[in-house]
Amino acid sequence: MIRSILTVLVGLLAGSVVVWVLEFAGHRFYPTPPGVDLENLEALKAYVASAPTAMFLVLLVAWAGGAFVGGGVAALLSPARRGLHALAVGGIQTLFASAQFAMIPHPVWFMVIGLTIFLPFAGLAGLIVGREPDVA
Prior knowledge:
Elements: H1 2-29, H2 41-50, H3 53-77, H4 82-103, H5 108-129
């Protein structure tokens, strides 16, 4: 049980790092406008409301990449039920996205895709990792 929890946590950490790196790269193409204080929730809401569609597409790519890598890492590290561990990572990432949407309104199309992107990509990574390890 503890190993399964640690496996999912390591998967979440790996996925978060990938999301952070891809979001950082995306900010090179779509930087935050000067003067926008991202620590101020109201300023952040205004920025998200006026952000270009392409920025949201970059964010979806980052989230998909994070779900794929996080699910794959969890599946690789899991002692059994690799697909379940991968899906657990995707499910928790979906909950994190839900919390973000509750705090900061986003375009409806983005929220719909954002809430449905994590499980398929994490599950795909679990499938790609392969079959269960042989138990002796």
